Amino acid sequence: MPQAIAETIFDILYLSFALIAGLTMLVKGKNPLVKKAGLMAALLGAGDSFHLVPRCYALWTTGMEANAAALGIGKFITSVTMTIFYLILYYIWRDRYQIKGRKSLTAAMWVLSVLRIAFCLLPQNQWLAYRQPLMFGVLRNIPFAVMGIIIIVIFAQEAKKANDHVFRFMPLAVALSFGFYLPVVLFSGTAPAVGALMIPKTIAYVWIVLMGWKLFRQSQVQEKEH
Q1: Which residue, of 61, 97, 128, 226, is most buried by count of CB atoms within 10 Å of its CB?
Q2: Looking at the domain that runs over 2-225, which CATH code has it been given?
Q3: Any idea which UniProt keywords this protein has (predicted)?
């Protein structure tokens, strides 16, 4: 019961924050960059809700195994939306630092996104099963991890060069999110306690959304000054 209470409160706060911040930026933001940040945050909250809401329900009712199908479908949806999340973040990077060209990098991000989603669609993932095959968990996360590495490197290069106070910690936030997520992929099947790393992983995503919110607040100040 304490786990159910703690997780439910945490999930409600997280999903509410991501959705409210995202929709606010989408509706009130006039800057295209802010709107992209809003779309990214709203997608994060909406996608994660498909996994976290069934998880909270399972904690309060018949348990994880009895709700495996709903949890698996939610996990699948979240896997797809998180792929799109990082693709949007790539375009935020392009717009923020006015990157021209880089067609090969853009193509690489799209190819990795399509590969990740294609791997997620394979029936061998066994999304509806309580225990899913580790091999396909690793396989579908390879292109996702490569996307994360690209985001870390390109933001680290440009944010430092531009002395960007809004996104200067983006590489660290993304690195932390993957650092907490990958052990869960690899070891949660044999060591369920590793699943607790999803909490700091989620906090890393909150940090990313907060950077978008900071950009939104800055744009509002600039609009008032003009």
Answers
A1: 97
A2: 1.20.1070.10
A3: Membrane, Transmembrane, Transmembrane helix
